[in-house]
C-alpha cells in the first residue's frame, strides 16, 4: 500500500472513529436488553419466550426502517440521517420509564427499533464517504470495533447501573447519551453529504433475481445471529441453566468478548491482504463448532465456546463486507444493502433470539445453539452461487 494512501487513511481516522463511536452507542442500546433480561422477566412477570419476543418486535421496527431509509436517503443526506436516528432513538429510550406492561414494552421497543434502524444505511454511506475504496476493509474494521467493544462494556455497565436503578433507568441513561451524541454529530460531524439515488422497482426486481443477493442475505443473517442473538440470551442461559449468579454471568459474557475488538481489526487487515473467501469459509465451520461447545453442560467448555464463537464472528465481518463490495458495482450497493440488511437483521436480531428463547422455555438454550451451529455449517453450500471475484483479494 502506498504512503499516500496510508496518509489519507490516517487523516480520515478521527472522523471514522467518531462514526464508530456513534455505532457503538446505537448497538449498545439495541443490545441492552441482554444483561437486563433476567430483571425484566422478573419485573413484568414474563417467560423467556415473551421477553426475547421483545427483540423480535425491535427487529421488525429496525428492519422496516432500514428499507424505508433507502428511499429517505434520496432526500436527506446520510450525515443528517445519522444525527436524526440517534436523537430520535434516544428519545424513545427515555420513554422506557413509562413501561409497566408487556404491551407497552412492545410498543416502545418497536418504536425504538424503527428509529435506531435508520442509522445503518446512513452510517455505512457516511463511513464510505470518509475513506478511499482501497481502505474500505480497514474502515469497516474500525467501525466493527463498536459492537465488539459494546459487548465487553455493556454487561459491566448494566451490572454496575442495576445497583442504583432498575432496568428502565438503564435504558433512560442510554437514551440520554444517544440524544446528546446525535446533536453533537449534527453540529460537528463530517462525511455523508451526498444524496443517494432513490431505489427503483426495476432495480429491486433485478437485485432479487440475482443469486448473490440471496446468498448475502443468508450470510448476513448467520453473522448477525452469531453476533447478536447468542449475546442476547447468554446471561439468562448462564443463570437459569448453568446456575451462575447474575453478576458472574455478566462478568463471564464480558470476559468472553475481551479479544473481539482485536479480532475485528485483524479481520480487516487479513481481508485486505488475503482475500475474503478463506475467512468466510473458515468462519462458517468454526462458528458451527463453537456453538456446539456452547450447548454442553460443562461450564469450562461453554466458556471456551462463547469466547471462540465471539472471536470468529468479529474476525469475519470485515471479510463479509469486503466480499459484498466485490460482488456488486458501487452504484448498486446502497440499494442492495437496503434489501439484504433488513431481512438479515429481522432474522439475526429478532427471529434468532426469539427462537433461542423458545428453546430455552420449552427445551434448552443448548438445543438452540446446536441448531444455529448446524445452519452455520450448511451455509457453506450457498457460497457456490457467489461470483469468483467476491471470494478473492480484490
From TrEMBL:
Q: Coiled coil: which residue ranges?
A: none
Q: Which InterPro entries match?
A: MFS, MFS_dom, MFS_Efflux_Transporters, MFS_trans_sf
Keywords per UniProt: Cell membrane, Membrane, Transmembrane, Transmembrane helix
What Pfam families does its record include?
A: MFS_1
UniProt key word Manganese = no
Where is it found, in Gene Ontology cellular component terms?
plasma membrane
GO: which molecular function terms?
A: transmembrane transporter activity
Matches recorded under PROSITE patterns:
MFS (PS50850)
Domain named Major facilitator superfamily (MFS) profile: which ranges?
A: 12-391
Q: What sections of the protein cross the membrane?
A: 55-74, 81-99, 105-127, 170-191, 212-234, 302-323, 335-356, 362-383
Q: Where in the cell is it found?
A: Cell membrane
Entry-linked Gene3D superfamilies? MFS general substrate transporter like domains
**Matches recorded under SUPFAM superfamilies:** MFS general substrate transporter
Protein name, UniProt field: Membrane protein, putative
Organism whose genome encodes this protein:
Nitratidesulfovibrio vulgaris (strain ATCC 29579 / DSM 644 / CCUG 34227 / NCIMB 8303 / VKM B-1760 / Hildenborough) (Desulfovibrio vulgaris)
User: Taxonomic lineage of this organism?
Assistant: Bacteria, Pseudomonadati, Thermodesulfobacteriota, Desulfovibrionia, Desulfovibrionales
Amino acid at each position: 500500500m502506498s504512503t499516500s494512501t496510508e496518509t489519507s487513511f490516517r487523516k480520515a481516522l478521527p472522523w471514522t472513529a467518531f462514526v464508530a463511536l456513534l455505532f457503538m452507542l446505537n448497538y449498545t442500546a439495541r443490545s441492552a436488553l441482554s444483561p437486563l433480561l433476567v430483571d425484566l422477566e422478573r419485573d413484568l412477570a414474563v417467560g423467556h419466550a415473551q421477553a426475547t419476543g421483545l427483540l423480535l418486535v425491535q427487529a421488525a421496527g429496525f428492519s422496516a426502517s432500514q428499507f424505508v431509509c433507502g428511499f429517505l436517503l434520496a432526500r436527506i443526506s446520510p450525515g443528517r440521517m445519522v444525527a436524526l436516528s440517534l436523537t430520535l432513538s434516544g428519545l424513545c429510550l427515555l420513554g422506557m420509564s413509562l413501561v409497566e406492561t408487556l404491551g407497552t414494552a412492545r410498543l416502545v421497543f418497536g418504536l425504538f427499533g424503527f428509529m435506531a434502524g435508520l442509522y445503518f444505511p446512513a452510517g455505512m454511506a457516511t463511513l464510505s464517504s470518509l475513506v478511499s475504496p482501497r481502505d474500505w476493509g480497514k474502515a469497516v474494521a474500525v467501525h466493527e470495533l463498536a459492537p465488539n467493544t459494546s459487548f465487553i462494556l455493556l454487561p459491566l455497565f448494566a451490572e454496575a447501573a442495576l445497583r442504583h436503578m432498575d432496568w428502565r433507568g438503564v435504558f433512560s441513561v442510554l437514551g440520554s447519551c444517544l440524544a446528546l451524541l446525535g446533536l453533537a454529530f449534527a453540529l460537528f460531524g463530517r462525511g455523508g453529504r451526498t444524496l443517494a439515488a432513490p431505489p427503483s422497482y426495476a432495480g429491486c426486481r433485478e437485485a432479487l433475481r440475482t443469486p448473490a443477493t440471496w446468498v448475502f442475505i443468508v450470510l448476513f443473517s448467520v453473522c448477525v445471529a452469531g453476533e447478536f442473538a447468542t449475546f442476547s440470551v447468554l446471561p439468562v442461559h448462564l443463570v437459569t441453566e448453568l446456575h451462575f449468579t447474575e453478576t458472574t454471568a455478566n462478568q463471564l459474557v464480558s470476559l468472553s468478548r475481551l479479544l473481539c475488538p482485536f479480532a475485528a481489526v485483524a479481520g480487516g487487515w487479513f481481508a485486505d491482504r488475503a482475500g475474503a473467501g478463506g475467512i468466510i469459509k473458515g468462519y462458517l465451520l468454526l462458528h458451527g463448532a463453537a456453538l456446539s461447545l456452547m450447548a454442553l453442560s460443562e461450564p469450562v467448555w461453554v466458556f471456551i465456546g462463547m469466547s471462540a464463537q465471539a472471536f470468529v464472528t468479529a474476525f469475519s465481518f470485515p471479510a463479509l463486507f469486503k466480499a459484498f463490495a466485490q460482488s456488486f458495482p458501487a452504484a448498486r450497493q446502497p440499494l442492495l444493502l437496503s434489501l439484504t440488511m433488513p431481512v438479515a437483521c429481522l432474522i439475526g436480531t429478532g427471529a434468532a433470539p426469539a427462537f433461542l428463547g423458545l428453546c430455552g422455555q420449552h427445551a434448552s438454550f443448548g438445543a438452540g445453539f446446536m441448531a444455529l451451529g448446524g445452519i452455520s455449517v450448511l451455509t457453506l453450500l450457498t457460497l457456490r452461487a457467489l461470483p469468483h471475484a467476491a471470494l478473492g483479494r480484490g
